[in-house]
Specification:
By secondary structure, the chain is α+β, with helices and mostly antiparallel strands. The chain has helices at 5-30, 149-162, and strands at residues 37-43, 60-68, 74-83, 87-93, 99-102, 105-113, 118-125, 134-141, 144-145, 147-148.
């Protein structure tokens, strides 16, 4: 099968245009800026410590770490925590963040988190340390909801095991 000059030029032009389109789509999506927010919660109840070991402990400590994981800053971050027992004490890092607190609810607002920047929250409740003290945890930002780090790693592990 032989092509004449105009047909050959049209085929080569179409191939070059197709390659250029694929390259443009690749560069657009590979350099796209995304903000992503994850959180991780740690409590004594997560470790299955026997109740007899915790008999002398009148408080239940909770640690929450919020991390900006995207390649662009995360804006309008709001963390709402509701516990089963009253919050006795709390500490936030960085300490400049505004905190609203009453009885068993706490809210932290941050205008912006840069990539890989973290918010750390330490809470002490008047509850049984061997039981989970969190009744609600809501993390949101301007582009959606925050994702639980533990659930994300479980999904990733199950994806790897299924392949």
């Amino acid at each position: 099968m032989e092509f004449d000059n105009p047909t050959l030029i049209a085929i080569v032009s179409a191939a070059i245009a197709g390659i250029a389109l694929i390259w443009a789509m690749f560069t657009h999506f590979s350099t796209r800026k995304v903000s992503k927010l994850t959180y991780e919660v740690s409590q004594l109840s997560d470790f299955g410590v026997p109740v007899s070991f915790l008999a002398d402990m009148p408080h239940s400590p909770i640690a929450i770490t919020v991390t900006s994981r995207g390649n662009k800053g995360t804006e309008n971050v709001i963390l709402r925590l509701k516990t089963k027992s009253n919050i006795e004490n709390y500490e936030v890092s960085p300490p400049s963040l505004p905190v609203t607190h009453n009885d068993n609810e706490l809210e932290i607002k941050s205008v912006r988190l840069n990539p890989s920047q973290q918010i750390k929250l330490f809470v002490r409740c008047n509850g049984e340390p061997s039981e989970s003290q969190i009744s609600e945890l809501d993390l949101s930002h301007s582009e959606g909801a925050g994702m639980n780090e533990n659930e994300r790693s479980e999904e990733h592990t199950s994806e790897l095991q299924s392949h």
